[in-house]
Amino acid sequence: MKSRLSITIKIFIFLIIALFIAGGVLVYQVKKELPSSEVIENYQPISPSVIYDINGNQLDVITLENREPVHINEVPPHVQNAFLAIEDRKFRTHHGFDFWRLGRAVLSNVTGSAREGGSSITQQLAKNAFLSPERSFDRKLKEAILAIEIERKYTKDEILENYLNTIYFGNGSYGIKNASIKYFDKEPKDLTVAEAAILASIPKSPTKYSPAKNYKNAIERQRIVLGQMYKYKFITEAQYEEALNQKIVLSKNSGINDDVNEDERISISNNAPEFTSMAISEAKRILKIDESDQKALFDGYKIYTTVDLDMQRAAYKAFHNNYNLKRRESLNGALISIDPNTGFVKAMVGGKNYKKGDFNRALVSTRQPGSSFKPFVYLAAIQKGIPMNTVIEDSPFTTPGWSPNNYDRKFRGSMSLLKAIEISNNVVPVKLLQLIGIDSVEKVWRDSGVEGGDFPKDLTLALGSITTNPLNMAKAYSAIANGGYRVKPLFIYKIENKYGEVVYDAKKEQEKVKVFEPEDVALLTYMMQSAVKFGTGQSAKVFKNGQLIPEAGKTGTTSDYGSAWFTGFTPTLVTIVYVGNDNNKSMGGGMTGGAAAAPIWKNYMQSVVNMEGFEVGTFAFIDDYLKSKDLSIKDIDLKTGLLDTDSIDKRSALFKIGTEPIESQNKYKNGLEGFI
Fold first, then answer.
1. Among the listed residues 467, 475, 451, the one whose alpha carbon sits nearest the alpha carbon of residue 569
2. Neighbours of 269 (CB within 10 A)
3. Which pLDDT tens digit goes with each residue over 31-53?
């Protein structure tokens, strides 16, 4: 028995020693990643963060315009104590930690009865000053070590002063002085106990406990703060009762700027407001900055976005100089341009007169894409082995409750799929969809990376009756432009902290997943090239050195002229443009994708192509297959789908080897009948 006990004790002692050693090693490793003593000694509460474009050009500075520090002597004890009572009651006596409070906070969180947080004020300052806001054990350990170091180098008053000057109080107010003036129109030295408790309530959740926005929540939280102050003898019973009975009267200015978005308050430039807003939003997500840690965004970060400032300026110029947009006040639209090989968003226009934080039509405006959706129907057909010379009759067709019509309400008889996409025929893709099935098209759409949104289960789908946004269209078209790979749109490619350390690299988020066969994409791209060269997309032609560049595209017009699109791409750039009224009302006759959207696309792309250093590239997935003789080009008759014999309605078409038409065999005379 004694022997077993002895062995147990030895094992226990061994485990204790092992844990001690492991803990020491872990602390040693973590300490190596922490800022130096010199950095800690020279700490400045908050420094601006800077947003750059992909070439290192400065886009914007994120700073605290509404921040005025105050000396701790200007903050009376009852105001200081309001924060200590709810945040760190043993602040004056501990050396960075309140172990009992930390343990109690853990237990309270488990039971759901939490009243206090687990981190001391020194820990919070350590996190805000030197660490990313991520929630992890590693960060908590760093926070603990730094808290001890800060306690060694600074007095309690200095620590509390820095803390009070940097915390966020909502509504654009940072620091105790600005908050005091904002909400009560008085200096901190003039605050009552009740008012101090209100301010101490806010940092936990600046929106939820804002007295200007959620008065009831603020008062409930204030009661908790006052209870803590009384419980821990920061105030007397008489002061407690007086504070409970005091009516909280807010400044007339407390609600001012509620209608002004945060992006406008904290940034100073208007070079590319769409990207400033997106960079702020994405940086908060990447750095895991929650609402109570807004100030963390201003701590000297360098945020490198994917935008090319020259391309952005070209987009603005093409968009805002457009004749239709200029002459019609109600008319609006969007543009988004993305590198299909990296997912980097290079340019974006959120609408006319876009301001930071406004409704960004390029990202969230949901509209029907009209005929610009048709390529996904054709791609689904190609996947089933249907070549572009397949002939379908353009003739009256009725499905339950609906009869599709062409743009000019005329029918043209037999025509190949190549001809149909060139002239944006409506009847042919509807009949094609009926044959291949709606599910096959939905699969193509989802495989491209588009998630969510409605997906009609009827034949109107062939004419783009879904609702989507320009970003989704850019994502879907990228999977065509790059040869069949799904990519994730990215707006930030790198973030550095104030010490020059890379805390985020887009390479970790980049995805390039094969979803389509390159041969299939090659056939579709060839068809869409033809639509630009000879069809409805001719107004989008772009030239370099007198030669038409490799480009493919498709116009899109909804039946009531509610939206006009041009969705096009080169080997290195996908650009989506839509034009329409925000209320989706008709723009009037003639406002087609070719007339309203394609000119914007052309003017933008022409400027981009002319930029020094821009590589147009080639559609390698077409050229490579031609070289390997897996694909071949044949001249066909657009009406019969057979090899051309008379140069009337002649067009070059691309085929997989073995699917080319044979002059003597009219195998398509009956259209798709018997083909599948």
1. 475
2. 14
3. 445 555 555 555 655 667 889 99
Note the Cα 238 to chain centre separation in Å: 53
In the block, residue with structure tokens 């129907």: 377
Determine, yes or no, domain membership for 448: yes
Q: Of 188, 191, 184, give the one whose Cα is nearest residue 255.
A: 184
For residue 16, what are the contacts with CB-CB under 8 A and spacing of at least 6? none
Distances (CA, A) of 496 to 267, 399, 510: 18, 58, 18
Quick check: is 136 catalytic? no
Report yes or no on 661 lying in a domain: no
**Do 86 and 222 have their domain in common?**
yes
Does residue 131 belong to any structural domain of this protein?
yes
Q: What is the mean pLDDT of residues 436-445?
A: 97
Q: What is the CATH number of the domain that holds 489?
A: 3.40.710.10
Which among 484, 569, 568, 482 has a CA at the least distance from the CA of 520?
484
Measured distance CA(417)–CA(246) in Å, rounded: 78
Pairing of β 485-487 and β 492-496: unpaired
The helix or strand, by DSSP H or E, that contains position 2, with its residue range, turns out to be helix 2-32
Alpha carbons 454 and 457: distance in angstroms, whole number: 9
Torsion of CA 109, 110, 113, 117, to 10 degrees: -20
Nearby residues of 471 by Cβ (< 8 Å), 6 or more positions away: 336, 362, 363, 489
Residue 190 and residue 140: Cα distance in Å, rounded? 36
Q: Is the dihedral of CA 50, 51, 57, 61 positive or negative?
A: negative
Long-range pairs of 112-118 with CB within 8 A, sequence gap ≥ 24: 115/224, 115/228, 116/86, 116/87, 116/228, 117/87, 117/204
Residue 52 resides in a domain:
no
Let me know if 87 is a catalytic residue.
Answer: yes
136: domain CATH number is 1.10.3810.10
For residues 197 and 47, give the distance between their C-alpha atoms in angstroms, rounded to a whole number: 28
Of the residues 49, 87, 120, 448, only one is catalytic, namely 87
Q: Where are the beta strands (DSSP E) in 3-141?
A: 49-52, 58-62
* Predicted pLDDT of residue 27: 43
Kind and range of the H or E run holding 576: strand 573-581
Distance CA 237, CA 183 (A): 26
555, containing H or E segment: strand 552-557
3-class SS at 539? helix
* Rg, Å, the chain Cα set: 32
Buried b (16+ CB within 10 A) or exposed e, 27-38: eeebeeebbeee
- For 193-207, the pLDDT digits (tens) are 999 999 999 988 888
CA 289 to chain centre: 15
Residue 222 backbone phi and psi in degrees, to 5: -60, -40
- Which of 371, 372, 563, 607 is labelled catalytic? 371
Residue 147 pLDDT level (bands cut at 50, 70, 90): confident
Domain enclosing residue 524, as ranges: 337-379+417-546+553-612
State pLDDT tens for residues 656-672.
999 988 764 454 445 54
- How many structural domains compose the chain? 2
3-class DSSP state of 400: coil
Which two three-digit tokens encode residue 325?
């947009």
List the strands of the sheet with 302-305, edge to edge. 58-62, 49-52, 302-305, 492-496, 502-505
